[in-house]
Amino acid sequence: MKCSPLLCVCYLLILIIPVTFYGVVLTQSSDSPCRLTIPTPMFEYEYYREGDVIIGGLFSAHIESQHNKFSFTKNAFTDSPGCSICGRVDLEEYKSVLVMMFAVNKINKDPDLLPNVTLGYHIFDTCNDPRNTLGYVTKILSGEKETLNYYCPGRGEVAGFIVDSTFQSNHAMAQLLSLYKYTQVNYQVTDPQLSDGKMYPTLFRVTPDERVRFAAIIKLLQHFGWNWVGIITSWDGSGDEEAQELRKMMREHGICTDYIISRQSNSVTDSQTIIKSTARIVIACGTSAINFLYFALRLFSYIRDITLIFPPSWITIPNNSQGMYVLINCSFIFVWPEEKKLSMDVYTEGVDFSSSINDPILEDVGARWFHCSSPDYLKNYYFQALYNIIVKPCTGVKNVSSLLSSYTTLHSYVYKAVYIVAHALHGMYMEINKAEQRGFQQRLNKYMRNLHYTDPTGGEIHFNERREVPADLILQSWYYFNETYYSYRKLSTMQSPDYVPGPFPNMSDPSFWREGNVLVSRCSDPCIPGSRKKFGSSIHKCCYECVPCSEGEISNVSDSENCMKCPDDEWPNEKKDRCVPRVVEFLSYTDDPIVGVFSAVSILSCLLTGLILWIFIHYQDTPIVKANNRDLSYLLLVSIMLSFLCVFLFLGHPVDVTCMLRVTSFGVIFSVAVSSLLAKSIMVCIAFKATKPGSSWRKWMGVKLSNFIICVFSLVQVIICVTWLSISPPFQDRDTHSYQGKIIIQCNEGSVIGFYSVLGYMGLLAAVSFIIAFLARTLPDSFNDAKYITFSMLVFCSVWIAMIPAYLSTRGKNMVAVEVFAIMASSSGLLGCIFFPKCYIILFRPDLNTKTVLR
Predict the structure, then answer these.
(1) How far from 687 is each of 84, 679, 696, 839, CA to CA, in Å?
(2) pLDDT value of residue 19
(3) Which among 174, 84, 62 has a CA at the least distance from the CA of 128?
(4) CA 472 to CA 459: how far, in whole Å?
(5) 690, exposed or middle or buried, with CB in 10 Å at 0-12, 13-18, 19+?
(6) How far does CA 24 lie from the centroid of its chain?
């Protein structure tokens, strides 16, 4: 018989799958109830409806038994390889089965959606076992409704599969269906690995993958300043990959993981780990499971200040986990936006156990909640062993509508998944070549990828590049009023694609936290602004010490890893959390009283010098003025007057021009003054040597020699200054290093050699004048000006010698003040020592100002 392509696929699947995924083919003895080579549960739960197109459905409406392989012998269950028994009923997953059937029936009644096409379904309960999942996939694809293999009846094309929320089943099924290009729509599992378009090109998801939620978790942790967390993974392996991916993403944002605890690990060791840890935020990864909750409850029963963050798949915890309020209270959960409420009351109203003959899961619901026996005596024995109850026939009608009346967002996504497949089919069948069946799956996948429609609630349904329906995330918390009654509170909405938290309520409200206070979950206390992190020996970046910022640096945010250097014109404030303008320092006319003193003294000294000059000019014909070379005296007084005025070049805000004129002008003026004194001293010595008869010194007498001395020695200083200004002139400088928090506006000498050459030359002239005047001190007093010159040079040299160490040991305006004081003191010394005695004689002792006395 010639095999059709579909029949061949079915044949190959049934032969290859057991070997490919398990390595061996499990077989059963002839007396075992399970006869298939594919592992099959002892009690099978199947729902089927004929249609032109079939949608497969695989749900985990039962939790696999802890002892998952049994055989029934002599009214007892014993181990038997290859035959598993489903455990307790998961009501939420059972509701998902009902939702899928309800959605298919509603689509068939809609004249605008898939007209003239009947939609059917083929649903199995996998009992949370991936082996069952693969076995049931082969049954759906082959059309097998009997217990024999390879039966492929003529029936509707399988369009795709709505897949349950278990991690392992999704991975196993995705690998299989991707090989044969069958569409798979997932409504809950968000494992990032399933986003691999090359490995799973036909897998579509109603919700984004876990990385979206991880990004939202990171934003939440950053919002509250939590950087030290723990992770607990579920027992089925789904949380292991999630935990590693989450830890990786958190590490990139500076959030550290103290521990990752797996369900299989040692509970005693884990308890000690949690007790010793300072992490007060624990993130749950993986799918929800009741045994995982009991495990977590044992760990957290004595740790009251820990808050958990749950993934969206755990939204049904309160419904299935009575007594877990200690663990769940005040915990956070991310949920997808709430969909339109399902109106299934008509569908479930009046459902009782009289209809259980067509609903095998309903038998188990009756046994679990109402202790009703099943027509299958094997089930009755199993129920009594599993639930530790005695089942008996139910005489009255047991209405189970109350158990099935609430539908969560999870069930809305099952409903949406069915409609997504229906709309893709609708688009495909509306094409001109709708009757063509060749390449059915490829065409359907194309329409799935390009799907875009508006659902009844107004939401835009389309798939992004990862074949996911984009969605926002809502953060909410559970709040228990007592052990049985709870409610949830919406805290914030995180909108795609950035998932930045929206406004939060007043989170300081004690009702949001278990211990009544805002939670702190950090390895180290945050570093306040003005300090930075100093990492020690810990491998975690979240564990550190806080040290103050170095001088000149600030940090204006908490937990700064590095301090920032302030600009040159700014300086840190006392707390080192912001830069403030530096204090600008110079000898200011408005802010420094000493500038007023210097200005007043300089002006008065200048006026006094001018008065003395006037006196000398007025009494220029008197013997004492003539005897001391009045022209040199005039020049000396003008130089002293100008030196007093030079003080103003040192006061006020310095600029480049004043910086160039300060030392150069003072150096030239003082060189002229000292050269005048040197000329006076030399002329005194020559005058007395020339008095001897026949002395050769007579020819040197006269004004030419004194003028020559002044011009030559002053010209040398001018040459030094011009050379200095030509090569490296002084300029305005902003010193930001000498004092903290200050900018010293000062004059930079440019060339230090030029600066000290000017001062050194003045010192040389003063020294020579002092020596010559000192040698001439023994001449007769009436004609001796050398004694006064000696005293004046002694004052001059003393002042400048004392100024040098003071100048070198000070900075800023104090250094300038030292210079000004030295100029004024040396000028005053010249004025006082040389001219005050003469003025005294001229004004108060005119009897001494005669030729007779002088002779």
Answers:
(1) 137, 12, 11, 23
(2) 32
(3) 62
(4) 12
(5) middle
(6) 52
Q: Using an 8 Å Cβ cutoff, are 608 and 831 in contact?
A: yes
Q: Comparing C-alpha atoms, which of 89, 701, 714, 693 is closest to residue 364?
A: 89
Q: Which residues contact 271 (CB under 8 A, 6 or more apart)?
A: 298, 299
Spacing of C-alpha 162 from chain mean position: 40
* 372-393: pLDDT as tens digits: 888 788 888 888 887 788 888 8
Give DSSP secondary structure letters for 386-445. HHT---B---S----GGGG----HHHHHHHHHHHHHHHHHHHHHTSTTTT--TTHHHHHH
What pLDDT does 564 receive?
92
Helix (H) or strand (E) holding 479: strand 473-480
Pinpoint the alpha helices (H) of 646-729: 647-650, 656-689, 703-727
Give the per-residue pLDDT at 13. Answer: 40
Which of 352-361, 616-625, 836-845 has the least mean pLDDT?
352-361
Residue 74, by phi and psi: left (phi above 0), alpha (psi -120 to 50) or beta? Answer: left
Instruction: Determine how β-strand 183-186 pairs with β-strand 157-163.
Output: parallel
Higher-scoring residue by pLDDT: 60, 236: 60
Reading the block at residue 3, the tokens are 């095999």
């002779």: which residue's tokens?
Answer: 855
- Average pLDDT value for the chain: 78
Q: How many Cβ atoms sit within 10 Å of the Cβ of residue 725?
A: 16
Averaged pLDDT, 398-411: 69
Pairing of strands 570-572, 579-581: antiparallel
Q: Once rounded to an integer, what is the mean pLDDT over residues 770-788?
A: 68
Question: How many residues in the chain?
Answer: 855
Q: What is the spatial distance between Cα 606 and Cα 670, in angstroms, rounded to a whole number? A: 15
How far apart (Å, rounded) are the C-alpha atoms in residues 681 and 690?
14
Residue given tokens 């003071």 in the structure block:
806
Confidence (pLDDT) at 11:
36
pLDDT tens track for 512-564: 887 778 888 988 888 899 999 888 777 888 888 899 999 889 999 888 889 99
Encoded tokens for 658: 């004043």
Q: Go through the domains of the chain in sequence order and give each one's CATH number.
A: 5-207+407-462 (3.40.50.2300), 210-335+472-512 (3.40.50.2300), 531-581 (2.10.50.30), 593-854 (1.20.1070.10)
pLDDT digits (tens, 9 = 90+) for 628-660: 677 888 888 999 999 899 889 889 888 889 888
CA distances from 144 to 151, 152, 351, 825 (A): 5, 6, 29, 119
For residue 671, pLDDT beyond 50 = yes
Q: Is 116 left (phi over 0), alpha (psi -120 to 50) or beta?
A: left
CB 642 within 8 A of CB 603: no
Query: Comparing 73-77, 215-219, 348-352, which segment has the lowest mean pLDDT?
Result: 73-77
- Two tokens, residue 467: 């074949």
281 φ/ψ angles, rounded to the nearest 5 degrees? -115, 125
- What is the side-by-side strand order in the sheet with 332-335? 256-261, 228-233, 281-285, 307-310, 332-335, 473-480, 486-495, 500-501
- Taking the alpha carbons at both ends of the chain, their separation in whole angstroms is 161
Does an H or E element contain 570, and which?
Answer: strand 570-572
Structure tokens at 811: 């900075």
